[in-house]
Design goal:
The complex is a heterodimer of chains A (107) and B (118). Chain A is mostly beta strands. Chain A is globular. Chain B is an all-beta fold and 118 residues long. In chain B, the strands form 2 sheets. In chain B, strands 2, 4, 5, 6, 9, 10 and 11 form a 7-stranded mixed β-sheet that branches. In chain B, strands 1-3-8-7 form a 4-stranded antiparallel β-sheet, with no helix packed on it. In chain B, strand 5 and strand 6 form a beta hairpin. Chain B is globular and about 40 Å long. Classes of the chains: A mainly beta (107), B mainly beta (118). At the A-B interface, strand 5 of A face loops of B.
């Protein structure tokens, strides 16, 4: 199985801040990476697929980059509705696996 | 817009079988090239992919659960199901059903909490 390691596991930030979350795969996954946002008590929602493609309806302040083993999710100008937990997921091979999550909280 | 809804017992006894159904509305489970997935999340923890079934009935399972998992599809009822045998407390989680065109999940159910306890 491909292991996905996210860091940090917790981020304290203010509205308007720029937040960067990283995700590392235990082996190369080309650009087969997705990012999801999950709010308490809700199912995750897709933000980004293929490492850098923004899913329909997702604000442009979200962006993704990377390929191979190292990936980044960036949130520019953090908004109140962005406080949530973020997960990366490799989509290269079955079983697809998720990172441990990064919780973005209000400072 | 396709919607998915999980249903099944919220409480299962240890060693018994957990059975859940995901009903698909707003579209046919047989149309298009999709995979129908089960994913779970223990309280306060991350996401674990359990397995999937294709529109044609091909299955893939997480090796960590493979010996206990069966996913099936019923096209006449427009739903798919999860059976997980010999459950323990470690199987307590919110279970999500989800639709994916490949391995990117586009549509999720709201999730259902299953507790394993005597």
């Amino acid at each position: 199985d491909i292991q996905m390691t996210q860091s940090p596991s917790f981020v304290s930030a203010s509205v308007g801040d720029r937040v960067t979350i990283t995700c590392r795969a235990s082996q190369g996954i080309r650009s087969w990476l997705a990012w999801y946002q999950q709010k308490p008590g809700k199912a995750p929602n897709l933000l980004i697929y293929a490492a850098s493609s923004l899913h329909s309806g997702v604000p442009s302040r979200f962006s993704g980059s990377g390929s191979g083993t190292d990936f980044t999710l960036t949130i520019n100008s953090l908004q109140p509705e962005d406080f949530a937990t973020y997960y990366c997921q490799q989509a290269d091979s079955v079983p697809f696996t998720f990172g441990g999550g990064t919780k973005v909280e209000i400072k | 817009q396709v919607q998915l809804q999980e249903s099944g017992p919220g409480l299962v006894k240890p060693s018994q079988t957990l059975s859940l159904t995901c009903t698909v509305s707003g579209g046919s489970i047989s149309s298009g090239h999709y995979y129908w997935n089960w994913i779970r999340q223990p309280a306060g923890k991350g996401l674990e992919w359990i397995g999937r079934i294709s529109t044609r009935g091909t299955t893939n399972y997480n090796p960590s659960l493979k010996s206990r998992v069966t996913i099936s599809i019923d096209r006449s009822k427009n739903h798919f199901s999860l059976n997980l045998t010999s459950v323990t407390a470690a199987d307590t989680a919110v279970y999500y059903c989800a639709r994916a065109p490949a391995m990117i999940v586009l549509d999720w159910g709201q999730g259902t909490l299953v507790t394993v306890s005597s």
